[in-house]
Design goal:
488 residues, 78% helix, mainly alpha, 2 strands
């Protein structure tokens, strides 16, 4: 059954070319084909998850080549499958939206499958160089999809995204080269042993970590290397904005967590306490600066974009605290953020479709009277984004704050919980407009919103609450994976 994890990656990657080739004869088969492929991939992933829960992690060596210096290994445990299922759930929700909301075309859906395959590859690879390959598959396809919008400046935003993303890839690849030079291997499990033999204070080892950290920070869009994010979100198609805000940073954070705990291990952080401190400071800066930038915006997509900087700063704080409680909080918060943020972007797109392209806070007045389902979903999702109980946004944040408290970091715990006020400052003005201001716009195209689109955001809002109540069950599911991260 080990080959199944390879099939999960290859299914969307190999089939990505089919919609493009189909354009020679059929113009509108891309959506149906992409949906069928991702549904099949999701079903396969659920099957693999059940196997892992009952039998433990799965390792698959491609082609039976086990030599660590050129063999390619895949690895799946509860942590990787948790992120993988989030990716597929969000991608399927995006497909529901794009069927009507667009963009359409076989080439677009071929690129979407390629992007999805790249993200799945990041979550399942156990090799640092192949991690780079999948990150670049993910990045290159996202550059192309950002430029698929009808706006003229989308090409500029995609080009800026490409330049900054390429710089991040260069930093990461340089770090990988240093690791290879120091240890002679790129396999994650082998590296955890050989880096300890070389020494965690060795300048090459530390420099490699720093370079990979900078490269992934750019991919995650942490402050101050977040500058590509706003342009990419504002000009990308709404469905792609949902992906590059909810999923692309999430899989990059997953990759960073693997490098910190699987490759370098917690002993590296213990030996180099300044590294953990720098990660913590970077997370706090992203948390507060991202929120500050979001408060200053009145365009919904820019608000949500800068919110991503803030939310992944919070996730990094949990990872830098480095205990089971905080790491579980980070993983849960990452999953919840993926569902909630993607739903909010799709909802923003639906509101724009129905009400003549509105995007600014002043235009949101009175929408509750015209679109109560969308307004109610916005309210629930907004509460989850703020981090109020009983939503998943609150539970993830609470575990991170509790993890900080367990380590005696009382100030960090207070700052994490206090950041809720900043989140409220950029979400509540929209909720206030929607419910307590008169409607002055035009209900331009009610027929543009399908039942499937409404169902997708209602499911997203429901998950934001259900995941909060199910946090104990999720903790049981992830407990062994989190413990393995800390004690490889």
């Amino acid at each position: 059954m080990e080959w199944l994890i390879g099939a999960i990656i290859l299914l969307p990657l190999i089939t990505a070319v089919v919609p493009v080739v189909a354009s020679l004869r059929w113009d509108n088969v891309g959506w149906h084909f992409a949906t069928a492929v991702l549904l099949a991939t999701f079903g396969l992933s659920v099957w693999v998850t059940r196997i892992i829960v009952s039998s433990g992690p799965i390792t698959h060596v491609l082609g039976g080549v086990t030599q660590p210096w050129y063999g390619v290994e895949l690895y799946a445990d509860e942590f990787s499958m948790f992120v993988l299922l989030m990716t597929l759930i969000v991608c399927l929700g995006v497909l529901v939206y794009t069927r009507v909301g667009g963009p359409r075309g076989n080439a677009f859906y071929g690129g979407f499958l390629l992007l999805t395959g790249g993200m799945l590859g990041v979550t399942l690879t156990a090799d640092l160089f192949n991690l780079y390959v999948f990150l670049e598959i993910m990045a290159i396809s996202s550059y192309a999809l950002v430029s698929a919008a009808k706006y003229r400046w989308s090409t500029y935003a995609a080009f800026k995204y490409l330049l900054v993303g390429t710089a991040g890839a260069g930093f990461y690849l340089f770090g990988v080269a240093l690791v290879l030079a120091a240890t002679g291997t790129l396999n994650m499990q082998d590296l955890s042993v050989r880096l300890a033999e070389v020494g965690y204070t060795d300048p090459t080892v530390v420099a490699a970590f720093a370079l990979m950290a900078v490269g992934l920070a750019i991919k995650i869009a942490l402050f101050p290397v977040h500058t590509w994010l706003a342009d990419a979100h504002a000009s990308a198609p709404d469905g792609i904005s949902a992906v590059i805000s909810a999923l692309v940073p999430a899989v990059a954070v997953y990759a960073f967590a693997r490098i910190i705990y699987t490759v370098y291990t917690v002993d590296f952080l213990t030996t180099n306490p300044d590294v953990g401190t720098m990660l913590l400071v970077a997370g706090l800066l992203s948390l507060f600066m991202g929120s500050t930038f979001a408060i200053l915006q009145d365009h919904i997509k820019l608000v949500l974009a800068y919110s991503t900087v803030s939310q992944f700063g919070l996730v990094l704080i949990g990872l830098s605290i480095a205990n089971e409680t905080a790491i579980f909080g980070s993983v849960l918060h990452m999953f919840g953020h993926g569902i909630v943020k993607a739903s909010l972007f799709l909802l923003a797109g639906m509101i724009a479709l129905r009400f003549g392209g509105i995007r600014h806070i002043q235009e949101y007045g009175g929408l509750a009277k015209k679109a109560p389902v969308m307004a109610g979903s916005f309210g629930v999702l907004g509460i989850a984004m703020i981090g109020l109980p009983p939503t998943v946004g609150f539970v993830g944040k609470w575990y991170i704050a509790l993890g900080a408290f367990e380590e005696g970091m009382w100030l960090v715990s207070a700052l994490v919980l206090g950041s809720t006020l900043l989140s409220a400052a950029y979400i509540l003005p929209f909720v206030n407009r929607i419910y307590f201001y008169p409607f002055r716009g035009t209900d331009a195209d009610p027929a543009s919103i399908t039942r499937g689109m409404l169902a997708s955001i209602v499911i997203g809002a429901a998950l934001a609450i259900v995941l909060g109540f199910a946090s104990a069950e999720i903790h049981t599911y992830l407990e062994s994976a989190v413990r393995t991260l800390l004690e490889p």
